[in-house]
Amino acid sequence: MKSFGFLAAAVAATLTATAPLMAAGTGQEGYFQIYNNTDSNTVVGFYTNGGDGWSDNWLSNRLAPGDDVRATFHANTGPCEQTFQVGWLGTDGGEVLDDPVSIDICEASNVYLDDNEMYYD
Fold this sequence. Notes:
Elements: E1 9-11, E2 31-36, E3 43-49, E4 68-73, E5 81-89, E6 95-97, E7 101-104, E8 110-113, E9 118-120
Parallel strand pairs: 2-8
Antiparallel strand pairs: 1-4, 2-4, 3-5, 5-6, 5-7, 8-9
């Protein structure tokens, strides 16, 4: 199975409001879509750890409630099993980190961020 390096990833700066069914790729193909499915929480950080430490923040812009963004990899090697951590905008303007969650990103087309969970399909 082909996998992609996660420390060398970037997220497109253009936010879109597409339906989850519109995403056609998977992490194995080099990209996936991140969806903020919350009603009132803004994502300010999205981090991965493939076993060699936490990545830099993938997001170049905040991800408002209801928005989504395409994540694109720039390397063609790396583990499929990744640990993700999301940073939310806190009431004081700082970042509040969620508990880390592990997923197989090579199988993911869409990563959904809800108020109390992260899941993918």
